[in-house]
Every structure is written in C-alpha cells, then in structure tokens.
Amino acid sequence: MSKKFSKSFKYRQKNVALMPAKDSSDKVGKYKFLLDEARKWAGMGIISKVQLQKIYSLYRSPQKTVEARHWDIVSIIAVFGSLMIGAGIILFFAMNWSTIPKLVKIFSILAALVASYYIGYTMKFSKANFPNVGGALIFLGTIIFGAGIFLIGQIFNISSHWPNAFLYWTLGIVAFAYLTQSKPIMYLTLLTASVYVGSETAYWFNFLDRYYNISYAFFLIFLSLGIAYYMLGNIHEKKDSTRMLRYPFHLIGSFLIMLVAYLFSFKWFGRIDNYGYSTGANVTSVLFSSKFWIIYLIVTLIAVVFTFISFKYRDTKDNTEFHEVLYLGLLLVFTPLAVLFSKINFWLIPITFNIILFLLIVGSVYLGYAKREKTLVNLGMIAFGVAIFSRYVEYLWDVLNGYLFFIIGGVLLIVLAIILEKNRRKIIDRFTG
C-alpha cells in the first residue's frame, strides 16, 4: 500500500504542477513565486506597501478566493463529520463493552481503521473525486488508531507506563500527516505529542510531595515545547513539500508559549495546595526534584536544537526571521531564570510575565502580518482580549459590587470585541491585498 500510495501521490502532485492554467482563476497559483518575492521586497523597503497592493491586485482572482473559501468550508464540515463518527464509534463500544466478545472487539477496531484509511485514500488520491471528504476519512482513521490503542489495552488488561499510549498514537499518525500533507492530522499529532509530554510529567509528579509548588516547572516544560514547535514550523517553511504544514506548528507553538506566559501573569500563581499563599522565601522549586527535571531539560534541549537549526537556515535577507529566532531563544533562557529569581520577591513573577505576555501578543500579530498567517493574527487578538478581561476580573472582583462588576465587564467585552475585530480586519486586508 505504501508504494502505491507514494507513487499515486507524487504522480498527482506532478500533474497538478504541470497542468496549464485554464482561466484567470489560476493566476494566484501560477504567480505565487512572484507574489512571495514582492512581499519580501516590501519588507526590505525596495517597494512601498501601496505598490505591493497594486501587484497583488494584478494577479489576484476573486473567483479563486471564493473557491478557496468554499473548499475550506467543505473541509471543515467533513472534519467535523469525521469527529462525530469517531465519537459515535467510541460511545457504541463504551455502552456495549461488557457484552461484546474480545475477537469481535479487535476485529471491529481493525475493520473501522482499515475502512477509513482505504476509502479515504480512494477518494483523495486514487480517484480524487472527493479529496476533502477523503482527507477527512483519513483523519478519522488517525482518531480510530488512537482509540484502538486504549481499547486493546483495556481488552487484554495491559498494565504498563500509561503515558506511552499517547506516544504510540503520535508515532503512528505522524507519517500520515506528511504523506497526505494534512493539516488536521498534523494538528492532532502535535496535540497528542503535547498530551504525552504533559502526562509523562504528571506521572512523575506522583513521586513528589504535594506541598511543593509544582506549577512553575510544569508549565515551563510547555513553554519549551511551544518554542520547539514554532521553530519546527520555521524549518518546515524552507521546503516547498512541507511549507503548508508550518501552520499547525506555528499555531500550536504560539498558543503554548502565550498560555504559559498568561498563567504566570496571575498574582495567585504562587499558591501551594492546602497551604494558602506562599511567600517568595518559602517557594520550593521543583526544577531540581528527583527525576522530574530530566523531562524539562530534555524538552528544552530539543527546543535549543531546533532554534539553532532555524537560525542557521534562516533567510539572511529577511530581518523578521532573525528577530523571531533571537527573541524566542532569549525567552527560552530568560523565563526559567525569572522563576528561580522569584524567591527574592514573589511579585517579580506576575509583573515580569505580564510584560512578556504583552510582548508576545504584539509579536504574534506582527509575525502573522509579516508571514501572511491569519492564524497568528487571530491568536494575538484573542490573547489580548483574554488578557485584558482576566486582569479586570483579577483586580476588580473584590472592589466592585456584584451588579457593577457584570455591567462594566459586559460593556468592556463589547468594546473590546469591536476594537479587536476592526483592527483584525485591517491587518488581514493589508497582507491579502
């Protein structure tokens, strides 16, 4: 199957690349190199932004945009349909698990897995009559594969290191993401890999005393993981064959980085379970606890390696990539030091990370504009709204009366929504011509 799949996939890619343009709707794909170069020229100051917009207007087709949006909607509907089918299969097994024989359970899992992969492959590559639906069925197969790992483990009462199930799930579907160039499967791959890191960390937390403030080290792991993802996205951007897959890496990576900064920005982040609020002198760092710090160092080392590779193969003519790698590299080093030095004064944590969060939000919007990635712009805007409202709740909950809190909060949300949507549209309209 793999040889046939690979030949069919390469054959169709070649045919699509060599296919002549039938009408004006193919202008964007035909002149993609020119449009990308024009964007770089504008970034370097060779041409103005007005000239860049005029170039885009010459080679941009409204019909192509409408068709792209249509297929995006079809893909989204198909993916949600696959998720519903997967949920139904899992629910069916859950309701009838005790009455189903073991052989029937195993056969049903394998049959559902093979059927989803085969029908999806036929629709997307072999006949190519319903490529979006076929991609969604392949995505469904990756979900069934993960569910099958847990179900088979339950059937045979396999007792092992339970976080490994997420590792096997990740390793079992990552190849499909690259072979099919599927962004949904790559999103799922990154999510299962993140869950594996989190579950592996939680497993070692069971060996630590509960009065330790474990939140510092736990979330720093995800900061390093987010930077590793983002740098992997930059590496994927360098090759035409993997360029489309940079979006999941950039979005999940940026989300994890901003999530960690957001959680550290709260003043109650030094809370210790069942012991109230801690003072800076009593905060116990878990970074040097037995076995746990190994996970943090491994993930951080991986992030450092990907950061170095991204820096080495960056576009030397594009300052954006240089600052991108430099700032995330500094963040990788600075944030653990900020947490460790919080023993001097606990309030260094929320103050420092509020500043970091603001800079990350600005950076996300700027990089989204520079790289023409709407997901980064949207993420930055959403993060800004969430951060503002969180600070409102955190500092004014005990100050305002109940009705005033909700009235002012509601007005604040509406105003924020208007401002964010207005500016989001302006930014996206600029880099889409």
How would you briefly describe this protein structure?
The protein has 433 residues and is mainly α.
Describe what you observe in this structure.
76% of the residues lie in helices and 0% in strands. The chain is an all-alpha fold and 433 residues long. Helix 10 runs antiparallel to helix 11, helix 11 packs parallel to helix 15 and helix 14 runs antiparallel to helix 15. The relative contact order is 0.06.
Which tags fit this structure?
433 residues; globular; single chain; mainly alpha
Count every helix, treating DSSP H or I runs of 4 or more residues as helices.
Answer: 16
**Mean pLDDT across residues:** 75
Q: Terminal Cα separation, in Å?
A: 43 Å
What's the multimeric state? single chain
Instruction: Outline the low-pLDDT stretches.
Output: 7-28, 61-71, 208-212, 271-287
Shape: globular
Q: Mind summarizing the main beta sheet?
A: none
Radius of gyration: 24 Å
Series of H and E elements? HHHHHHHHHHHHHHHH
Structural class by secondary-structure content:
mainly alpha
Strand content: under 5%
Secondary structure tally: strands: 0
Secondary structure elements and pairings:
Elements (H helix, E strand, L loop, with lengths): L1 H17 L8 H4 L1 H13 L4 H11 L2 H35 L5 H25 L4 H25 L8 H17 L2 H23 L9 H22 L9 H19 L27 H21 L6 H22 L7 H24 L2 H23 L5 H30 L2
